[in-house]
Design goal:
The structure is a single chain. By secondary structure, this protein is mainly α. 81% of the residues lie in helices and 3% in strands. It contains twelve helices and four strands. α3 (53-65) packs across α7. The chain is globular and about 50 Å long.
């Protein structure tokens, strides 16, 4: 009975995270538009961060509850899933051309972010000072995006982000925030229950179940964008979220409380660097993400999941 209840609470937590993030983004975007903030800046900041709010809620909640492995694994697992499966599924549904700006600026930054995290995790801890450095890098990246947006003055439709009434905007922000907080709490509690009762490590649960669940907003956003032919969103959403996940989420989580982790977290971060670098050169060489490349990403992700499961249960001899 406890398993059924916690499974229900886990699904409910994911649903609240996704819907909460959706309401929060709509409300925040509307307020920004009412304040005459350019649409392009709304898209590069509020909307991009919005798809990472589920990961933020889970990781920060996990940090507060002392589930530090879950906090780090959620971010690293989500980033690997985003890069391999989200982009892969999107490309398999509808192949798309890669955006040159993303490949020149954002993708290298995402690889650098993973490399910085790997160096910080060598001692299996993320101190408050290291977390503060990540958060400062997050602020620097946001300023870089805003500066680039203002410099290039990208023309976008004024109807791209819907405007709500001031009262409705505030209500959406409050309801969205409540949904994110409650959803994050339910997800962490349920995931911890399964990890404990089934003999699974928090690292494994965070890298698989929680990582996939909190990455659903990125999956939906990228698939829809790919179908509409908006390649800069299909790939940019994933790359941007991966940067935010490391700089903002782990920065905030580590500031709340220093994080300690299983040695496997460093291995997974190195894997993230490896697959990020591999995909970067494949995308750059082909200048597009074809169905075959998308399928390759999904296959690599499946191999990775098999690997971490075997590793978790000590079934690997190397």
């Amino acid at each position: 009975m406890d398993y059924v209840l916690n499974l229900f609470l886990l699904v409910l937590g994911f649903a609240l995270l996704i819907k909460g993030a959706d309401l929060f983004v709509d409300g925040s975007s509307s307020v920004a538009k009412l304040l005459k903030i350019p649409a392009v800046i709304i898209g590069l900041t509020i909307v991009s961060i919005g798809t990472s709010l589920p990961e933020a809620a889970v990781s920060i909640s996990a940090s507060l509850k002392g589930s530090y492995d879950l906090s780090i694994a959620n971010v690293v697992g989500s980033n690997i899933f985003n890069l391999l499966s989200v982009v892969g599924v999107s490309a398999f549904i509808c192949p798309f051309v890669v955006d040159r700006v993303i490949m020149k600026r954002d993708f290298p930054i995402s690889i650098l972010a993973a490399a910085i995290l790997a160096v910080m995790l060598i001692d299996n801890t993320l101190s408050r000072i290291e977390a503060a450095i990540l958060f400062v890098l997050f602020i620097a990246y946001i300023l870089l995006l805003v500066r680039s947006a203002l410099k290039n003055r990208i023309q976008q439709s004024s109807d791209e982000y819907k405007t709500l009434s001031p009262l409705k905007s505030i209500l959406f922000i409050i309801l969205g925030g409540a949904g994110i907080i409650l959803g994050g709490t339910l997800t962490v509690d349920s995931a911890t229950f399964f990890a404990t009762s089934l003999g699974m490590s928090e690292l494994l649960v965070g890298l698989t179940i929680v990582a996939v669940g909190t990455s659903l907003p990125e999956l939906v956003t990228s698939v829809v964008a790919a179908k509409k032919g908006e390649s800069e969103i299909a790939l940019g959403n994933v790359v941007g979220s991966n940067i935010f996940n490391i700089f903002f989420i782990l920065g905030m989580s580590g500031i709340v409380h220093p994080l300690t982790c299983d040695p496997g977290a460093l291995i997974d971060t190195v894997i993230l660097i490896a697959v990020s670098t591999l995909m970067f050169f494949i995308y750059k060489a082909k200048n597009k993400v074809s169905r075959s490349v998308g399928l390759l990403g999904v296959v690599i992700y499946i191999i990775y999941v098999v690997y971490i499961i075997l590793r978790a249960y000590n079934m690997l001899s190397f």
